Amino acid sequence: MTLVKIREVLDGCCDGKKVAVRGWVYRKREGKTMIFLLIRDSTGVIQCTVRKDSAAWSEAERLTIESSLTLEGTVKSDPRAPGGYEIVAEAISIIGLAELFPITKDKSEQFIRDVRHLWLRSRRMNLIMKIRANVLGFTREFFKSQDFTEVSPPMFISAAVEGGSTLFGLKYFDQDLYLTQSSQLYLEILIYSLEKVYCIAPSFRAEKSRTIRHLTEYWHIEGEWPFADMHDLMRFEEELLAYICQQTADKCKKQLEELGADVTKLSSVKTPFPRITYTEAVERLAKKGSALKWGDDFGYDDEKALAEEFNKPFFIYDYPAAVKAFYCKTYREHPEIAMSVDMLVPRIGEISTGGVREDDKDTLIRRIREMGLKEEDYDWYLDLRRYGTVPHVGFGLGLERLLTWMLDLENIIDAIPFPRTTRRFYP
Ligand code: 4AD
Ligand code: MG
């Protein structure tokens, strides 16, 4: 008897063989002479049949949903079984008999979110988490292929990156500190040593908005490098996204299909992405009857309306400096315009923001003051402009927003195992 993973059985490697699988009861249906079990492990779900005359019958009768077990039997191909194979059970050994499992078909979405620790066992969450892990892998592969060094920035920080309104404060012994909103400023430090750097780390936003695209804790893919401009930045970002999407379409095809995601949408992500300026975006919105004026920031509805026209990832660049952060570089001949770029996708809107960083010390000090920030909070950041300043760019891509788009998820909370929102922090 060989212990196998369920995926091996479904892949047809065990036809006619005696095998053992270890896992949990996913579904159970009892007939007079036959019990149908769906058994799941980390790799898949397999139908198992238990006949009344089998030695496994009495244990099969006792089994409850989510009980853990070892099941031995013979693999048989059967076109009626989901996946094309089933195991005819010969012996069952119960490992942990489950109490009455609270998640049943009639339960509300609300309830399912409350028992996240149990819902994570669902096939759906299993698939999403596997694809997520793969997407992280492809991201690292791409950065590595471009000679980037992965670095580990701190999460406790002493000054805001992205403005005070979404900053989480905390008591750090007897000091007031914050949870980081972005690792950008720390990546900027590291480019002076390592040049091309990136990190994949949590970012925190005290975000009160309850939308399908906001979390209070999310995973942020951020890159930063010197001697580059807006074109280099957009080219890098689109190549990264195309690589992630194509690799996912290719290597995670089965999981995407089982999840009901659109594989073709991902495989057809090709560079170059369309690029429009902020001004052009405002004009496009005006044609749609929007009252938005030059200088206003886009809301979620504006972004969605623009994204609908493209129906694929695209860039908007050259934003009004007033709606962008203090560190954004502005055009010398047009100080009202920041060299900042967002990537947008259908339905979700913005998935990344990046840009050229202000590398001139005096201009940076002016921007810090204009934005009502305290110069002394950014003293170390100004040092980077004092000692060997260089032109440099960087961006931040929200992993969960990316996954929400890639996998056609209804809500961002399903893109992360333990979502944190205004109301959700349990378990
Ligand atoms: O646009 P943001 O605020 O830009 C920055 O933080 C820059 N410092 C990044 C950089 O240049 N290194 O955030 C970047 C991305 C957004 O485009 C979005 O995808 C994601 O982070 N994001 C969120 N994702 C989920 N929930 C939230 N509340 C998010 N806020 C931002
Ligand atoms: Mg942004």
Structure description:
By secondary structure, the protein is of the alpha+beta class. It folds into two domains: 2-100, Nucleic acid-binding proteins (OB fold (Dihydrolipoamide Acetyltransferase, E2P)), CATH 2.40.50; 116-415, Bira Bifunctional Protein, Domain 2 (BirA Bifunctional Protein, domain 2, 2-Layer Sandwich), CATH 3.30.930.10. Helices cover 32% and strands 28% of the residues. The chain contains 14 helices and 17 strands. It has helices at 6-10, 57-62, 109-114, 116-119, 123-145, 184-194, 230-251, 253-259, 263-267, 278-287, 300-310, 361-370, 379-386, 399-406; strands at 2-3, 18-30, 34-41, 44-51, 68-77, 85-96, 149-150, 156-157, 168-172, 175-179, 197-204, 217-226, 275-277, 314-320, 337-345, 349-356, 392-398. Strands 7-11-12-17-16-15-14-13 form an eight-stranded mixed beta sheet, with helices on both faces. The radius of gyration is 26 Å and the shape is elongated. The two termini are 39 Å apart. It binds 4-amino-1,4-dioxobutan-2-aminium adenosine-5'-monophosphate and magnesium ion (MG). Magnesium ion binds at residues 342, 350, 353.
